[in-house]
Design goal:
Elements (H helix, E strand, L loop, with lengths): L32 H61 L16 H17 L5 H51 L4 H18 L7 H25 L3 H11 L5 H29 L4 H11 L4 H40 L7 H6 L2 H15 L8 H13 L1 H6 L11 H15 L3 H24 L4 H6 L4 H24 L5 H14 L7 H11 L14 E3 L2 E3 L11 H14 L5 H13 L4
Length: 598
């Protein structure tokens, strides 16, 4: 087990230190000063530690405060930079109002204007900064952005000015070229204007980035174009001799690709002049067109091109003369009819003008005067009217040249006015208006032709002889259909369709013999049936009977058609795309019998 040793006897000697100096006075140590000193030192040590701790806390706080200041400065600078960027985007890049959308010469004042706006915007932003450090940093940012902004604007202005200058140079050159060509008959003016064009290119070319070779090419192209234009202008003014002289003086400045064209034009110009001179000589001797053509052929035997041009000129001159004569004669006849309208007497027409009228025109005027003297309106002659309407549709050129006054005494006032308006439309080249006015006539004509064909009647035979009984009967059919179409249109308020017109025609043709549309038309229909390809008169008229009494074939009704026949006809009409009505069924049934069944 462990053993604890005892202290035992004195271990420390009590003998005094050798040479020791002893005193009896009290010392600081003997009075306890060491203890106080030790205590004080302890307190100083504690105070020093506390001071160090205080210094550390103060330093940390100061660092935190500084960090917050720095952060606030950075945020303020960031916000200021964003404000500048937002302004710049709107002021420069807005697709509608941005400075970079300003084009041409309007862009010239942009650098100064943008700089002033930028300065005001930057000043406003700087006024919102609170510390010197923020303002100093913003000043640096402002300067950097200002330089970049100015560079962007000046680049834009430079590009726009380049474009604007180029456009103005091109316009100046084009204007000078046009003036030179327009004044082809004045060589001095041609030279002045060509010099202006060349000066515009050589003066402005370097600023537009053109090198010496490019400038020379443009000058050569402009010079060649002007010379060619002047020659063409001279030829157009029948100055073939002057054009040839000008070409000899300038052909060295004309582009090689254009030389062949110019030489051909000069040859053509010379040929045209010789042809005009020759045609004028032939025309001086007068004669008919045929006689003048014969003289030209006999005179020109070794130059096919000249001969062709002379013949063309003679024919053209004859056409112009014929038109002038026709217009003069139309004016003469118009004046004569105007006199008769006022006086009702052909004797009021000036004798010289009366003698200039043809015999037919005089007779027409006398008939017209007699009708006017009796106070009666001119009765329209249907064959004449519808014949002219068909000519307007089939041969508009011939109709445009026809003198309608020749038939004035046979045309009612409404019909005459309609034909005159139609002729004026065709003469003026307004074919669309003419086609609109002819549309009703064409529609009715087509339906009538198809319907007559079902009965074996060829309407062409009647149209070729408008004054024959058949021609008059066909014109009467047109007139009755026009009247019925007008009535139908008046009731419905709209233009009848093809189906509507077809039903009207079917009714006219199938019911004509019953007297429904008047005995006069029944007689006319019988005349047309005389043109049928099959012998209608040879068909027995008593094929059917009703209530024990015989019934003529053309007097049948739908009740006379057996039901079995009706079904067959319905199917045939449906397959043919024709309307299926009682009337169309009856028409088809009668047609079958007219053609011998089947």
């Amino acid at each position: 087990m462990p053993i604890v040793n005892t202290y035992g006897g004195r271990k420390v000697a009590t003998a005094p230190l050798p040479g020791a100096r002893l005193t009896a006075a009290e010392t600081a140590l003997s009075e306890g000063a060491g203890v106080e000193q030790a205590r004080a030192q302890k307190f100083e040590t504690l105070a020093g530690v506390a001071g160090q701790l205080g210094q550390m806390a103060t330093s940390t706080y100061t660092a935190l405060v500084q960090q917050e200041h720095d952060r606030a400065d950075n945020v303020a600078l960031l916000a200021a930079g964003n404000a500048l960027a937002t302004w710049e985007h709107q002021r420069l890049y807005d697709p509608e109002t941005g400075a970079l959308q300003v084009k041409g010469k309007d862009a010239m004042p942009l650098p100064e204007a943008i700089a002033a706006d930028y300065g005001r915007q930057a000043d406003a932003i700087a006024a919102g900064l609170t510390t010197p450090r923020q303002k100093q940093a913003f000043a640096q940012l402002r300067a950097q952005r200002g330089e970049a902004l100015d560079l962007t604007i000046r680049r834009h202005v430079f590009g726009e000015m380049q474009t604007y200058q180029g456009q103005e140079v091109n316009a100046a050159v084009e204007n000078a070229m046009s003036a030179a060509i327009a004044n082809a008959l004045d060589p001095r003016r041609v030279g002045v204007e060509l010099g202006r064009a060349v000066a515009a290119i050589t003066t402005n070319g370097p600023a537009l980035g053109l090198g010496p070779e490019q400038i020379a090419q443009k000058v050569a192209a402009v010079t060649s174009t002007v010379h060619v234009g002047v020659i063409d202008r001279l030829l157009a003014n029948d100055q073939a001799g002057a054009a040839k002289v000008y070409f000899q003086e300038t052909k060295g400045q004309i582009d090689g690709k254009a030389l062949a064209k110019v030489e051909a034009a000069l040859e053509e110009g010379g040929l045209r002049k010789r042809a005009q001179q020759t045609a004028d000589e032939i025309a001086k001797d007068g004669g008919t067109l045929t006689e003048q053509r014969d003289r030209a052929k006999a005179l020109i035997t070794d130059d096919p091109k000249l001969r062709e041009q002379v013949l063309n000129l003679i024919e053209h001159e004859a056409a112009v003369t014929d038109r002038a004569d026709r217009e003069w004669h139309e004016t003469l006849v118009t004046r004569a009819y105007n006199v008769v309208d006022k006086t009702h007497d052909v004797r009021s027409i000036a004798p010289a003008e009366w003698m200039s009228l043809t015999g037919g025109e005089r007779n027409s005027l006398m008939d017209y005067a007699a009708q006017r003297a009796r106070g009666l309106p001119v009765q329209n002659d249907d064959p004449t009217y519808y014949g002219l309407m068909r000519q307007a549709g089939d041969d508009p050129e011939a109709f445009a040249q026809y003198n309608l006054l020749k038939d004035r005494y046979r045309l009612g006032d409404p019909e005459f006015k309609q034909l005159v308006a139609l002729q004026l439309q065709i003469r003026n080249g307004d074919r669309a208006a003419a086609d609109r006015d002819l549309s009703n006539f064409r529609q009715n004509s087509d339906v009538i032709d198809d319907a007559l064909a079902l009965y074996g009647v060829d309407p062409k035979v009647a149209r070729n002889k408008p004054l024959s009984p058949e021609g008059k009967a066909l014109a009467q059919l047109y007139r009755i259909l026009d009247q019925q179409v007008a009535v139908l249109e008046g009731k419905s308020g709209k233009k009848p369709t093809n189906v509507d017109v077809q039903q009207l025609v079917d009714g006219l043709l199938s019911q004509s013999v019953t007297g429904t549309v008047g005995s006069g038309w029944s007689a006319a229909w019988n005349v047309l049936l005389g043109l049928a390809a099959f012998p209608v008169g040879n068909i027995a008229p008593m094929d059917f009977s009703r209530a024990g009494r015989p019934v003529g074939l053309l007097n049948l009704t739908i009740a006379d058609v057996p039901e079995t026949e009706r079904e067959k006809i319905r199917g045939a009409l449906t397959r043919a795309g024709r309307p299926v009505t009682n009337q169309t069924i009856l028409d088809a049934f009668i047609l079958q019998r007219l053609r011998g069944g089947g």
